[in-house]
C-alpha cells in the first residue's frame, strides 16, 4: 500500500487525483492496471484479491473495487498472492508519481527516521527508498534484501519510471536474486546462470545475452513487433466498428420490414397487428441481447487494446533509453505477450450479421382468410470470422526455417549440408506451377522392410505433428520442427484418427472393433481409454469433446453417423446407391470449420459426398480424374483438398462442390494422407510408394 516516505510529504492537489489509489486513498505505489483500465497500488490490489476473489464453475474471478467489473485473469490457476504482480504496470502513472518524488532533495530515508539528514547516494527500486553509503552496505548484507535492484540516485533521476520498470524485466522470474545473462536459441528463452545450470545443460545454441542483443538490433525485430502491435490495435478497433455497424443495419432492417407490414394493414388488420407485435418483441429482445453482448465484447477488446498500447509505450521507451541487454530481454517478453494478445483477439473477431425473415405466403394479399399461425417471424444469424491482417508472428522465410531446423537437428554446424539443403528448396520451387515443395523429412520407422501401408498424418493445435504408422501399429509424435519426440505402441493395426482441441486423439482399430483414445501431455503420449463399437468404423472426425463422426461398412454398404466418446451411437445414415463389399475400398471423413457439414470420400466410388449433420446430402462430386480418393483436408476459406491415391493429384473443391483446380505437378506417387498445418500454412503429405513410404513431404501453396 502507499505509505509516507522520505521524499517529503505534500498535500494532494485537485489535479493530482489520478495519482491517488482508490483503496488506500494515498499516492499510488507501483500502480497496476486492470482490464477495466483502473489502477491500484500493487499491495492494495493483492490484499483486495485475497479478500474478495471467488471461484465459479472452476474459474477464479474478482470485481474491480471502482466499477465492479468482473475480472477473469488468464493466470487464474496461479496462487492468489501472485495475481497482483502479474497485472501490467501503468507506466504513465508510475512515471508521474515517481517523477513527483524526484522533485525534492534526496536524503537517506532510514537515517531521516532517526533524525539524521545524510545525503543519499543509492536508490532501491524494490523498497522505493534512497539510502546513504552506510545504509546501502547494511542493505546489501541482508539475506532478504540483497537480491533487490540498486541504482545510483543519478540514474534514478534521469528516468525514475524506467529505473523501476527495467528492474523487473532484468530479474529472473524463477530466481529473484539472479539477472538474465544467457539466451538459449534452442528454446527461445532468456536465462539466468541458475536456469542454465538446471534445465539447459544439453542446449548447444546458448550465447551471452549481449551477443544475442546485438543480433536482435541488427535484425530490426523491435520495429517488426511495434508494427504488429499497432496493426493489432487497428484490427481490433475495426472489429468494434463493424460490430456496431451490424447492429445499426439490423435495426434498419427491422424498420424496413415494419414498413412492408404497414402496406398490408388494410386487408389483414388482425393478422398484421399480431405480426407487428411479434416482430417488435422479437427484434427488441434480440437487440437487447446482442447489444449487451456487444458491450461486453467491446470492454474485453478495449482492455486488449489498452494492454497492447501500454506494451507499445514500454517497448518504445526501452528501445530509446534502455541498454541493448534490457532491450533483448524486454523484446523477448513482448513477443510472447503479443502472441497471447493475438490469440485473445481471435476470440473477438467473430462478426454476427443478424437478419429478420418474415414468412408470408404469396396469396396473403388476395385472401384475407388467413390464420395468425400461417405467418412466422424468424431471426437469422450469419457468423463471419475477420482474419488477422497479417500472418501471426511469421518473421522467417521458408529458407530460414529450413536452415533453423537443419541446425537444430544436427549437433554440429555442417555448412556444406545446409548449402545442399538450400539448393534443393530452390530447385523444387522452380518446377511446380500450383504448389511448392519446401521441405521433406524422414518418418521414424523401426521396420522399413514392411510392405507399403498408409501413414496417416495430422497436426495438433500447438503445432506438433502426429503420425499413424499402420505397418508397425504405432502412433508417433513430432515437434513443430518435425523432429521425432516419442511414440505409443497400439494393440492392432490403426486406420484413421481424429484430433480435438485438447490434444486428445481418437484412433480407430477396425480389426478389433474398438476406438483407442490417446492424450498428448507435453512430449509424451499416454493412453486414456479404449471403447468398443457396435459397427465396423474406419475413419473418425472430432465433432466436440463428447461426440465423434464415424464412417465404415455395414450390410455391404457404406455408412456414417455420430457417436459419443463412450461408444453410444446417436445416429447412422447409409450412402444411397453405392453398394460395396467391405474388402473393396475404404472411406474417410472430415468436418468443415463450423462443424455443420460432413465430407466423406469413398475410395472405390471415386466420389466425395457432403452431408449436413441430420443426413441431408448437399452435393456429390464424382470425377474420372479423381481415382481412389484417400484423404481430405480443409483450409481456413472452407476449400476442400482431396488426394487421389491412384491418380496422383489433388482436387481443390469449393463449398458448393465445384472444382476450383486440379493440382498435379510436384505430387509424389501414390499420395495417401494429407493435413493442413494452419500455423505454417503448409500441407503435409505422405505416400505409399515403395521409395517414399518413410518420407513426409511439406508443400506451400502459391
Structural account:
The protein contains 14 helices and 37 strands. The radius of gyration is 32 Å and the shape is globular. The chain folds into three domains: 1-104, Zinc/RING finger domain, C3HC4 (zinc finger) (Herpes Virus-1, 2-Layer Sandwich), CATH 3.30.40; 220-385; 432-701, Neuraminidase (6 Propeller), CATH 2.120.10.30. Helix 10 runs antiparallel to helix 11 (269-321), helix 10 packs parallel to helix 12 (324-347) and helix 13 runs antiparallel to helix 14 (415-431). The protein has 702 residues and is of the alpha+beta class. 32% of the residues lie in helices and 29% in strands. It holds the Pfam family zf-RING_UBOX. Keywords: Metal-binding, Zinc, Zinc-finger. Residues 21-68 form the RING-type domain. Residues 103-153, 167-201 form the B box-type domain.
Architecture blueprint of SSEs:
Layout: E1 31-33, E2 39-41, H1 42-52, E3 54-56, E4 59-63, E5 70-71, H2 83-86, H3 91-101, H4 109-113, E6 122-124, E7 129-131, H5 133-141, E8 150-152, H6 153-158, H7 160-170, E9 182-184, E10 189-191, H8 193-199, E11 206-208, H9 209-219, H10 221-263, H11 269-321, H12 324-347, E12 350-359, E13 376-385, H13 398-409, H14 415-431, E14 435-442, E15 455-459, E16 465-469, E17 474-478, E18 484-489, E19 497-499, E20 504-509, E21 514-521, E22 524-532, E23 536-542, E24 547-554, E25 557-564, E26 569-579, E27 587-591, E28 597-602, E29 607-612, E30 617-622, E31 629-634, E32 640-644, E33 649-653, E34 659-663, E35 671-677, E36 682-687, E37 695-701
Antiparallel strand pairs: 1-2, 3-4, 4-5, 6-7, 6-8, 9-10, 9-11, 12-13, 14-37, 15-16, 16-17, 17-18, 19-20, 20-21, 21-22, 23-24, 24-25, 25-26, 27-28, 28-29, 29-30, 31-32, 32-33, 33-34, 35-36, 36-37
Amino acid at each position: 500500500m502507499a505509505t509516507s516516505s522520505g521524499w517529503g510529504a505534500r498535500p494532494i492537489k485537485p489535479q493530482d487525483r489520478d495519482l491517488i489509489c482508490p483503496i488506500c486513498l494515498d499516492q499510488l505505489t507501483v500502480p497496476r492496471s486492470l482490464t477495466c483500465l483502473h489502477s491500484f497500488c500493487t499491495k492494495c490490489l493483492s490484499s483486495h484479491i485475497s479478500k474478495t476473489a471467488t471461484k465459479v464453475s472452476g474459474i477464479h474471478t474478482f470485481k474491480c473495487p471502482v466499477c465492479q467489473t468482473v475480472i477473469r485473469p488468464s493466470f487464474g490457476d496461479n496462487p492468489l498472492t501472485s495475481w497482483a504482480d502479474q497485472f501490467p504496470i501503468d507506466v504513465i502513472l508510475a512515471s508521474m508519481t515517481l517523477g513527483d518524488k524526484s522533485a525534492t532533495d534526496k536524503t537517506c530515508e532510514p537515517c531521516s527516521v532517526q533524525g539524521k539528514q545524510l545525503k543519499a547516494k543509492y536508490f532501491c527500486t524494490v523498497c522505493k527508498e534512497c539510502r546513504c553509503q552506510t545504509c546501502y552496505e547494511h542493505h546489501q548484507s541482508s539475506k532478504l534484501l540483497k537480491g533487490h535492484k540498486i541504482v545510483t540516485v543519478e540514474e534514478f533521476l534521469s528516468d525514475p519510471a524506467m529505473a523501476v520498470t527495467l528492474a523487473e524485466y532484468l530479474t529472473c522470474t524463477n530466481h529473484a536474486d539472479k539477472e538474465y545473462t544467457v539466451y538459449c536459441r534452442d528454446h527461445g528463452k532468456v536465462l539466468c546462470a541458475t536456469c542454465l545450470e538446471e534445465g539447459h545443460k544439453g542446449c548447444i545454441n546458448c550465447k551471452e545475452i549481449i551477443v544475442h542483443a546485438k543480433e536482435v538490433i541488427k535484425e530490426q525485430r523491435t520495429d517488426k513487433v511495434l508494427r504488429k502491435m499497432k496493426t493489432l490495435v487497428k484490427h481490433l478497433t475495426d472489429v468494434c466498428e463493424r460490430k456496431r455497424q451490424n447492429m445499426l443495419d439490423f435495426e434498419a432492417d427491422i424498420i424496413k420490414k415494419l414498413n412492408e407490414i404497414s402496406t398490408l394493414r388494410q386487408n389483414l388488420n388482425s393478422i398484421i397487428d399480431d405480426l407487428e407485435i411479434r416482430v417488435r418483441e422479437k427484434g427488441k429482445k434480440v437487440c437487447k441481447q446482442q447489444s449487451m453482448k456487444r458491450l461486453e465484447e467491446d470492454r474485453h477488446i478495449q482492455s486488449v487494446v489498452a494492454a497492447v498500447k501500454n506494451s507499445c509505450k514500454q517497448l518504445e521507451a526501452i528501445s530509446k533509453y534502455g541498454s541493448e541487454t534490457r532491450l533483448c530481454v524486454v523484446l523477448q517478453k513482448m513477443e510472447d505477450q503479443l502472441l497471447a494478445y493475438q490469440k485473445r483477439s481471435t476470440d473477438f473477431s467473430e462478426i454476427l450479421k443478424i437478419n429478420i425473415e418474415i414468412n408470408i405466403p404469396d396469396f396473403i394479399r388476395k385472401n384475407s382468410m388467413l390464420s395468425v399461425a400461417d405467418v412466422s417471424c424468424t431471426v437469422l444469424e450469419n457468423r463471419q470470422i475477420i482474419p488477422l491482417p497479417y500472418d501471426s508472428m511469421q518473421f522467417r522465410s521458408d529458407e530460414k526455417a529450413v536452415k533453423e531446423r537443419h541446425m537444430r537437428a544436427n549437433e554440429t554446424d555442417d555448412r556444406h549440408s545446409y548449402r545442399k539443403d538450400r539448393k534443393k528448396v530452390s530447385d523444387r520451387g522452380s518446377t511446380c506451377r500450383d504448389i511448392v515443395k519446401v521441405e521433406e523429412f524422414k518418418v521414424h520407422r523401426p521396420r522399413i522392410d514392411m510392405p507399403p501401408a498408409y501413414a496417416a498424418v495430422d497436426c495438433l493445435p500447438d503445432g506438433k505433428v502426429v503420425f499413424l504408422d499402420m505397418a508397425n501399429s504405432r502412433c508417433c509424435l513430432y515437434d513443430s520442427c518435425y523432429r521425432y519426440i516419442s511414440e505409443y505402441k497400439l494393440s492392432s493395426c490403426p486406420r484413421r484418427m481424429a484430433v480435438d482441441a485438447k490434444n486428445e486423439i481418437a484412433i480407430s482399430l477396425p480389426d478389433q472393433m474398438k476406438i483407442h483414445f490417446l492424450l498428448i501431455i507435453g512430449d509424451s503420449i499416454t493412453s486414456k481409454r479404449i471403447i468398443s463399437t457396435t459397427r465396423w468404423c474406419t475413419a473418425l472426425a472430432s465433432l466436440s469433446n463428447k461426440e465423434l463422426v464415424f464412417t465404415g461398412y455395414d450390410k455391404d454398404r457404406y455408412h456414417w453417423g455420430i457417436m459419443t466418446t463412450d461408444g453410444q451411437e446417436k445416429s447412422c445414415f447409409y450412402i444411397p446407391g453405392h453398394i460395396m463389399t467391405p474388402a473393396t475400398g475404404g472411406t474417410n471423413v472430415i468436418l468443415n470449420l463450423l462443424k455443420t457439414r460432413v465430407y466423406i470420400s469413398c475410395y472405390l466410388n471415386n466420389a466425395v459426398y457432403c452431408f449436413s449433420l441430420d443426413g441431408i446430402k448437399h452435393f456429390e462430386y464424382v470425377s474420372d480424374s479423381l481415382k481412389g480418393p484417400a484423404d481430405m483436408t480443409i483450409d481456413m476459406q472452407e476449400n476442400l483438398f482431396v488426394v487421389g491415391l491412384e491418380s496422383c493429384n489433388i482436387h481443390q473443391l469449393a463449398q458448393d462442390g465445384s472444382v476450383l483446380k486440379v493440382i498435379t505437378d510436384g505430387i509424389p506417387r501414390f499420395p495417401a494422407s494429407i493435413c493442413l498445418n494452419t500455423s505454417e500454412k503448409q500441407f503435409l503429405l505422405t505416400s505409399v510408394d515403395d521409395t517414399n513410404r518413410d518420407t513426409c513431404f511439406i508443400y506451400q501453396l502459391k
